[in-house]
Structure formats: structure tokens, C-alpha cells
Design a protein that fits this description.
It comes from Streptomyces umbrinus. InterPro entries: Acyl_CoA_acyltransferase (IPR016181), FemAB-like (IPR007434). This is N-acyltransferase. Pfam families: FemAB_like (PF04339). The protein is α+β, with helices and mostly antiparallel strands and about 375 residues long. The chain folds into 2 domains: about 210 residues, Gcn5-related N-acetyltransferase (GNAT) (Aminopeptidase, 3-Layer(aba) Sandwich); about 140 residues, 3-Layer(aba) Sandwich (Aminopeptidase), CATH 3.40.630. Strands 1, 2, 3, 4, 5, 6, 7, 8, 9, 10, 11, 12 and 13 form a 13-stranded mixed sheet that branches. A hairpin with a 2-residue loop joins strand 2 and strand 3. It is globular, with a radius of gyration of 22 Å.
Length: about 375
């Protein structure tokens, strides 16, 4: 047997490291897929700078980094990261009973592992197996990896005999025409086109203007109170101090270099702001905030209409609007894609299969009803009722 065969067959070694700083950014980013911005080293490091590091599982094979997955704890009982709300019909599930995988509080996770198709399943299984044993040592029921695309969740779940993929939400993404809003308008009915133009016209009549800029320390100070206003409105803790700390962490990690900031000016005041991040041909919308003086339709103008034109002008082909995938987004050109979590128990008993089948089929019915134009082919056959 040759040395190359021995290296190829070497089992991956999984280690729990204290945070992203313990791993080479170059090696980490070599594993990040085109749609994996929130799994990039700079984004995860920015969170660590701002809020403290979370342990990261790393998989090495023959001395080469083959996979990374951050871990974190979560006690949310309401909101986007409430397991109770994500699964609804599964009895007795509590967020704090599980070890969570993926970037902390990210609503767009991917498997950050080798691109080599011959190795992916083995690396994923090793990471999941180590994670479930880690959960067991902590006295937790298992591990959860949320906000994965349907295909990603199925790939991850198929790598481990105890893993299950569970539909829980939908994502919203705009496929950006090369001519921006002009192209998007040409693809919809005249009724929709007139509504979009009316909203932009009302915004302009307020004597407001839009400026695109970079995320500098001065801009961070200007937008933090606006972004905190919206977070407070929807029950997120931390206020302006939390927002300033988060943006400061992005400046420290360097991820701010990927940021684009849209500002609404009204006279001498900035009344609204939206933050986007570029990665490959994706433009990710992440934060939005406004004061009481913001003009009507500022939200749609910044996060959608202006963003589509900006994306087209700068070579981005997908605009990620993220969750929740509301009707207001789909009625403005966004397409829905299913999101799922992967659950792996810490013990030998898997989650009861019939209960998961019921959850998935109920979610699939909701999905098909919400996005009939997308068609059931966007779902795995086993999820279709």
C-alpha cells in the first residue's frame, strides 16, 4: 500500500478549539462556499471580538484542515432561534437542552468543509459525532444545526445514522437582473410594477436622498442608534451599546471591508440605514434601522429597490433578504427557498421518526402554499406530503 493511499484513508482528527483565532484565516476561508459569507473566518471572528469567542470544532486529515463548525449555547424561548417556535408541533423541545452548531445567531448556515466529494461525508460524520459526545458531556439532549438550505441539511443528515433534517423556515433571495430594478420590473405584472414605482415616488417626495458608503468608525457611530431602535422594537436586547460593540468587532476582524452602508439623508439628519455585505456574487442584507423621522417606504427603498440597483451595478447576482421570508419580500420579487435544521441526539436513541415526518410534511404544505410558483421540486421528495 502506498503512502498516498494511507494518507487518503486516514481518519479525520476532530478537536475543540477555543475560537476562530486558533485557526488560520487562510485555511478556514479555503473551505467557505460561495454562499457561505456568515461562515467566513472574518464574520465569526467579528462576533468573537464583540461578544467573546465560542468554541469551534475543527477536523484535520493528514495535517490539513478539512472542516470547521462553531458551537454555541442558546436559551431563547421566543424569536428566530427558539427551538419551540421552529418545530412547533414537536412536544417538549427546549432551546437550552441542545448544543447549537453553525455561526452564532446566523440565519444562513452552510457546512464549512472540504470541497472534495470523496471526503465530505466522512468529515461531516466526524464533526457530528464529536459534537454529540460533547453535548452528552454537558448533559444536553443533542446537537442542532439550524438555518441550513434544504440540500445542505440533507447532505449533513445523510452523513450520520442518528441525524434527521427538519424543515423549519424559508429564506428570501432576489435573483438580480443585470439591469437592476428595470429588469426586475419587466418580469412582473403591471399592477406590481405600478406599486413599486409609487412607493419610490412617495419616498422621493419627502426630499430624502440615499447615499452608499463604507463602514468606517464614524459611520458606525452614526448608524448604531438607528439599528438599535429597530432591534429594540422587535424585542432584541442590548440597545445601542450592543450594536456599537458588534460593529466595532467587525472593524477589528476586517469583515467591515466587505460592508456597504445605505443611508437615508433628510436635511442634515440620517433618518434610516441598512447594512449589506458582499461575498462572491452575493450581497447580504443584514441590519436595518430608522428613526421616527424616516420617510414612508424607507425600508423597502433601502433594503430592496436601491439594493437591487446597487447589486446590479457592482456585479452581485443574488440579494439575500434573509428571514423572515414575509409576503412583503415575495411581493417585491424575492424567491423563497426552504430552510431546515439537522438534529442529532447525544444518546443512542434518535428523535422519533413519525413525529419528524409530521413536522416536515406540515411545513412542506405551508411552503408549497406560500410559494406555488417555486413548485414542489425545490423540496426533497421525502418532505412532500
Amino acid at each position: 500500500m502506498s503512502y498516498s493511499t494511507l494518507v487518503r484513508d486516514e481518519a479525520p482528527v476532530v478537536t475543540l478549539l477555543p475560537g476562530p483565532a486558533a485557526i488560520s484565516a487562510h485555511e478556514w476561508n479555503a473551505l467557505v462556499s460561495p454562499g457561505g459569507f456568515y461562515s467566513s473566518h472574518a464574520w465569526v471572528a467579528g462576533l468573537a471580538h464583540a461578544h467573546g469567542p465560542s468554541p469551534v470544532l475543527s477536523a484535520f486529515s493528514a495535517g490539513r484542515l478539512e472542516g470547521v463548525v462553531p458551537t454555541w449555547t442558546n436559551a431563547d424561548s421566543t424569536g428566530l432561534f427558539s427551538l419551540e417556535e421552529m418545530t412547533r408541533t414537536l412536544p417538549g423541545v427546549v432551546s437550552a437542552d441542545y448544543l447549537w452548531l453553525g455561526t452564532q445567531r446566523s440565519t444562513a448556515n452552510v457546512a464549512t468543509i472540504t470541497r472534495n466529494p470523496a471526503k465530505r461525508a466522512r468529515i461531516l460524520r466526524a464533526l457530528l459525532e464529536h459534537a454529540r459526545h460533547l453535548a452528552a458531556r454537558k448533559g444536553l439532549k443533542g446537537v442542532l444545526w439550524p438555518y441550513l438550505s434544504g440540500p445542505s441539511a440533507q447532505e449533513i443528515a445523510s452523513s450520520h445514522p442518528l441525524a434527521h433534517a427538519v424543515l423549519h423556515s424559508t429564506d428570501a433571495v432576489v435573483n438580480v437582473p443585470t439591469d437592476g430594478m428595470a429588469g426586475l420590473e419587466s418580469s412582473v405584472s403591471s399592477k406590481e410594477r405600478m406599486k413599486w414605482r409609487r412607493e419610490r415616488r412617495i419616498f422621493r417626495s419627502s426630499c430624502s436622498s440615499v447615499e452608499w458608503t463604507s463602514l468606517s468608525p464614524d459611520v458606525c457611530e452614526r448608524v448604531a442608534p438607528l439599528l438599535a431602535n429597530t432591534r429594540d422594537k422587535y424585542g432584541s436586547p442590548g440597545g445601542t451599546a450592543w450594536m456599537r460593540r458588534t460593529l466595532s468587532g467587525q472593524l477589528s476582524s476586517g469583515v467591515a471591508r466587505n460592508a456597504f452602508v445605505a443611508l437615508v439623508h433628510r436635511g442634515n439628519d440620517v433618518t434610516a440605514a441598512a447594512l449589506f455585505y458582499g461575498h462572491g456574487d452575493w450581497l447580504y442584507g443584514r441590519y436595518w434601522g430608522a428613526s421616527h423621522a424616516a420617510p414612508d417606504y424607507a425600508y423597502f427603498v433601502l433594503t430592496h429597490y436601491e439594493a437591487v440597483d446597487f447589486a446590479a451595478q457592482h456585479g452581485f447576482r443574488r440579494l439575500h433578504l434573509s428571514v423572515p421570508a414575509s409576503k412583503s419580500k415575495t411581493s417585491r420579487g424575492a424567491a423563497l427557498t426552504p430552510l431546515a435544521l439537522v438534529a442529532v441526539p447525544s444518546g443512542a436513541t434518535s428523535i422519533e421518526g413519525r413525529a419528524l415526518t409530521f413536522v416536515n410534511r406540515r411545513r412542506a404544505q405551508d411552503w408549497i402554499g406560500a410559494a406555488p410558483s417555486a413548485g414542489p421540486e425545490t423540496l426533497d421528495p421525502e418532505w412532500i406530503p
